[in-house]
Amino acid sequence: MEYAVAFIALCVMGYALVEHRLVTTIITGPMVFMTLGFLGGNRGFDIIDPQSLLSVEVVDAFLVAALTLVLFTDASALHFSSWRRDAEIPGRLLGIGMPLTIAFGWLIAALLFTDLSVWEAGMVSVVLAPTDAALGQAVISNPRVPERVRAGLNIESGLNDGVALPILLILIAVAERAEGSPALARIFVEEIVIAVAVGAVVGLVGGRLLVRSKRSGWLSPTWSRIAVVAMAALCYGFADPLGGSGFIAAFVGGLIYGRTTDGELGANEQFADDFGKVMTQIAFMIFGAVGLSFAFERLTWQVVVMAVLALTVVRMIPVAIAMLGARLSVNTVLYMGWFGPRGIATVIFALVVVTDTTLPGTEVIMTVALITMALSVFAHGMTSNPGSERYANWYASHPDVGDMPESEDVENVPVRGRVERPLRPSPR
To answer: What is the pTM of this model?
Structure first.
């Protein structure tokens, strides 16, 4: 156990030496760090065991910080010239696809896990609903993939965490019968309204202050970058105690910050983005070391079936329904339907259920979350590069490519993690 820190540092250093080469392969960062964490955990060499070093609350805080920073920096990269047009795909994914995904998953969870209450089955579905585009990096960073598709998937990934959280809190309140029906509506409204307000204020005021400080010559490059980390923390730190979703606040704050600074601060958020990336990879190592051992000990066929269905039909059918009338090709709909990875938010939401409730089904909910995320890390990671290239080849070879709805441009495409180097194009 005394070599845990050295082992984690060695893994980070080793990955840094080969990361650039791995970009064009089927091996991704989350796959590497989760595997290394599993090998270093109590089922491997027993080098790291966060449960003996850190409390559940500290681990939860680390994961929340990582997700908050990623959401803020991702949103800061979004700059659209026409929100009415560019919001169509993410709007359909969030407004139609996500409710259908939750409803469909709820039904399947209730059928598979008969020992759970109907509300706990709903929690399983909500926990598995948020997507994390970072697990399939090439899907949204491949410049040969249409801009509208990349932007739509990334916006969906940034917003659905905050949309799902109020629903989860409502289900918890109903399951524990701690609140009456009027309070349930208040929870949902407060989570969103307060979060949007806090995020907008922090992003607007913070962005303007940074711009003015730079123009006056008071702002150094070093502290300019550090200030972005502080702004992300401010969004969550104000919204959460006030009853709002810290994740929604972080995403809205980053969005407003990006619009307010409008590129004037250059790559100001690069340090925050890089720091968030490292935190995310360490989080996957923690999952591998502790989470997978916990999940494997409680693995059942129902858990496996739920995980597989959650990543396939529970996601893909609602996406197909949501895209009816959008005039997108079948290949595009399949591409968006498959690439809905489950990442850190899924485990964080499961931790909310475990730490904030005394429900009898918490172990099942956590097990399903961990197995689904682990399966997604490998399934989506291994298919992201070849899948994006295959789709890009089809798109480029389409005879009417210029007239396809997918071809409509957006002003600036968000790239989760800001992979600046293009992928190697496959020969055609």
So the answer is: 0.81
